[in-house]
Amino acid sequence: MLTVALPKGALLSDSIRLLKAIGLDFSAFLEPSNRLLQITDPTETAKALLVRNYDVPVYVEYGQAQLGIIGYDVLREKTPQVAHLADLGFGKCRMSVAVKQSSPYRSALELPLYGRVASKFVHCAREYFDSLDLPVEIVPLYGSVELGPITGMSEAIVDLVATGTTLRENGLIETDILFESTARLIAHPLSYRINSNGLQEWIEKIRSAALVVTS
Question: Where are the alpha helices (DSSP H) in the chain?
Answer without folding.
Answer: 12-20, 56-61, 72-78, 122-131, 147-151, 165-169, 189-194, 199-213
